[in-house]
Amino acid sequence: MITVRALLFDTFGTVVDWRGGLISRLDEWRREREIAADWPRLVDAWRMAYPLSLQRVRTGEREWAVLDELQRESLERLALEQGVAGLDGAAADEMVRMWHELPPWPESVAALHRLRARYVIAPLSNGHVALLVRMAKTAGLPWDAIFGADIFRHYKPDPETYLGASALLGCQPHEVMLVASHPSDLDAAAKCGLRTCYVSRPLEYGAGRVFEAIPEPARFDLMVDGLEELASELGC
Predict the structure, then answer these.
(1) Which pTM does this prediction carry?
(2) Could you tell me which InterPro entries the record lists for this protein (predicted)?
């Protein structure tokens, strides 16, 4: 049995369905706003712009900014590139805020309740605190604490995020497990001394689409097919 005191969760893709949630919401929203676009194409491009935006901040190329600002900048560029007509400032703001209200994967909420009965649970996300609080309210995520990138003024995979969240929980790194569907995130956490759990989310980027290769067996402390399986593995 793995012994840890706290579980930190990557959020976008691991706990909530960013792609399916955004496409569904935008499809409803277009009728209100009368804005036409290839929403799956735009959403995919928007997500692919995400790591590049974070990297510019992490390297000092761009001054610190919360995720909403970075997402807004990417959206404005992509709207021009893809010829999205009618996207004014108010509409762009609405689209950015859709990242605050993403739906959980079907088993996420029940599994988090199981895990919370035994462990301290919290998101460790590149989203900011206000975004994560709103997401928790709308999706029913039962966090004990919330760690956004704005607390540390660093984005993952900077060590300040993993070590900072562990310290704020009063834990040594080895007493904390990062739970994520992204191997690169888990590799960075492991280098900081955290335990790791890989969660398979084959539909995160759409059926048959893979952004990071599936990790080889035993690369991480645990490898599960969902959060319910994680709860069972940890005896919850």
Answers:
(1) 0.95
(2) 2-HAD, HAD-like_sf, HAD-SF_hydro_IA, HAD_sf, S-2-haloacid_dehalogenase
